[in-house]
Input
Amino acid sequence: MPRSARINAIKLFYSYTIREAVDVTGVSARTISAWIKEGLPVMKHQRPFLIRGDDLKGFIQNRRKARKSQTALHQFYCLGCRDARDAAGGFAECLVNGNRVTLKAFCDVCGNVVNKPFAKSRLPELKGRLELLRQVGGRSESLRPAKPEPFRTSR
Ligand SMILES: [Zn+2]
Output
């Protein structure tokens, strides 16, 4: 069970190195790296990389809200809207990694990229609610069986 992050000591107008972010939040460096992959903004034009205190605190608060807010199976929590949103166009990209799946889509309202982990075994439950595009070697491909080409008679 990962320890929950402490946010009370985060100074909004201070920029933290990863090491300092670990100290101030009490989570592991691995968790901080995972947050950066999830979208925690980081200033990369100098080393060591710095994370703004307000970004760090906001990111943790958003994650907590995301966990509490009720998103339907086919919906995503949008960090831009801070609410549950449908996928734009009704489809999501499906990145499969073993039994773990990440669904990636665009927010229907603001256009932000939204994503969430999903259980591979539950993918069939999305049928009819969300069209899934499987990511294959960088290009997307529908998970639905291809429709047979209608037979065309030549004129
Ligand atoms: Zn949005």
User: Anything to note?
Assistant: Residues 53-68 form the longest helix (16 residues).
